[in-house]
Amino acid sequence: MTFAPWFAALGTVDRVPFAEAAERYGACAPDGLDDTNSDCFGDDLDEVLVHRGTVHHAGDLVIASETHQPVCHGGDCGIHVLDGDLTVDGTLVFTEWDQANVLIVTGDLRVGNLLVEDEAHLYVGGALRVEGLLVAGLSHGGMLAVAGETTAEACLCAGPVREPMVLFGSLPTHPREPDRMVDLTGVDQARLVRPELLDASGRWADRAKTRTALLEGRPVLRHTGLRAEDAGRL
């Protein structure tokens, strides 16, 4: 499902003047909504679309443009605010091209696994709670920003982008075992990721293969529950 139909299906969506939305929700964005409007939309946005209330999605949720162009399908590209908590029982995949849509969750985001890809922008004003794996497969045009705490079994940067735009309010921690190493971005992926999920170079996790594995409930990593001293041996 592409972004605009998914957001419209949530229910009542209010069109909030941009200045009002920037004041109300700007704290959820790393540099405020004015900066997001400038960087992603050339200051062209006059309003922000807002759905108020908690959203619960049973199963996996894939929000993705299928081409390298913004695909709105009669909807609205722009900044979308879910003013509340979002829970996805399965894997959440958010893929976007040409910075067409920004999703802001003002409360907590709870997911089974999370994959944010390409030029998607996902801002979380509360905590990010990932039961399993958090994968950032972002280009330099995308961003994941979390204002509150982040918990996950592991966080991985898929692909060769050396400086992914992933901003955490605090270092990610394991939900149950605080001595576990969660951020695996600097660990050699050729030794970390299961060999069938590596790209053609054999050096990086392949995003498409990783996405399929997550949605099929298959493991992505060779090792789980790494401690800091384990990483140096990989």
Characterise this structure.
The structure is a single chain. This protein has 234 residues and is α/β, with parallel strands linked by helices. The chain has helices at 3-8, 18-25, 32-41, 189-192, 207-215, 228-231, and strands at 14-17, 47-52, 55-57, 61-64, 78-83, 86-96, 101-105, 109-118, 121-124, 128-130, 133-138, 143-146, 150-151, 154-157, 166-168. Strands 3, 4, 6, 8, 10, 11, 13 and 14 form an eight-stranded parallel beta sheet that branches. Mean pLDDT is 87; it is low at 70-74.
Instruction: Give the DSSP E fraction (strand runs of 2 or more residues).
Output: 25-35%
Helix content: 10-25%
Give me the Rg, rounded. 17 Å
Q: What is the helix tally? A: 6
- Structural category is alpha/beta
In whole angstroms, how far apart are the ends?
Answer: 38 Å
Low-confidence spans: pLDDT under 50, at least 5 residues?
A: 70-74
Tell me how many strands there are: 15
* H/E series: HEHHEEEEEEEEEEEEEEHHH
Largest sheet: 8 strands, parallel
Mean pLDDT: 87
Query: What is the approximate shape?
Result: globular
